[in-house]
Amino acid sequence: MIFAFLCVLLAHSAPEPPLVVASYSYPAFDRSVALAPMADVVGHAAGRPVKIVLFDTPDALSDAVCAGQVDVAMTNLGAWVTMRDCAGVNAIAVLDTPPTVLDRYRGVLLTRADTGISGLADLSAQTETLRYSEVLPGSTSGALVQAAQLRELGVTPAHFAARLHAGTHDKSLEYLLAGEADIAALAENPWRSLQESDPARAETLRLLWRSDPLPPGPVICREREAVPCTAIGNALLEAGAAATAEALAQGWMETEGAERFRPYDEAVYAPFTSH
Asked: pLDDT of 32-61, one tens digit each?
């Protein structure tokens, strides 16, 4: 009897495990800092301790969310489309990014002029001799949208002679310029910057393809008894969450300048799939 009583007492006195607020890491941004104010919002709404976890790639983040290892996360578009059908996962807010920034958030495919490739149609006959550079698994503008475009030609990144993961958009561009890759997938911003800062060097490259503008990934919450997703979403959408939005926006190039959150709109994301 005493032993059973002690077991019940210890069970009730054990500290609650922290909720997990997560995203994926990227060398150009300190995302632990960007996530910290949102983690405070989550902790306050839940009345629970919170810890921040950064996964290596968007794909790893998606896997962790679907496995139930994450409670709230800031996603990119690529991670969102691979996790949105997982049980209990819902988008609760999106950073309200300025239209000028959204218009610049696109993916491109570039090649060097000396490869002799003049357009996408040339790729299918030459993939086995070409080296392909992309950013990292699950990168929206540096891997996924380009892979989708290549599939329309009957080509996948695995068909190339080599498939390199550069780690950053700038590095993917640098691999191309240095002759370490023949085709590069990256966001448009580094390509724009090169054209402005070094036009002569940019002239050595050729633009093969440019995507339509891409929406940023939403903040997601995994529904379970201990996680008040509705309350967290409402707190983010309040006018007083401006500081939280501004801090989070500084962790992603595609959300630069956002000062508030807005409700998630499925119509914006419906055209994007994981296949």
From this structure: 999 999 999 999 999 999 999 999 999 999
- Given pLDDT bands bounded at 50, 70 and 90, which one contains residue 236? very high
DSSP state of 137: T
The structure's pTM equals 0.85
Q: Give residue 275's pLDDT.
A: 60
Say how far apart CA 111 and CA 207 lie, in whole Å.
7
Please list the residue range(s) of the chain that carry CATH number 3.40.190.10. 16-101+215-269, 106-210
Q: Cite the DSSP H helix spans in the chain.
A: 2-13, 31-46, 58-66, 77-83, 99-104, 145-151, 169-177, 188-197, 199-202, 229-237, 242-249, 266-269
Class of domain 16-101+215-269: alpha beta
| Helix then strand then coil, % of the chain, to nearest 5 | 45, 20, 35
Superfamily of domain 106-210: Periplasmic binding protein-like II (3.40.190.10)
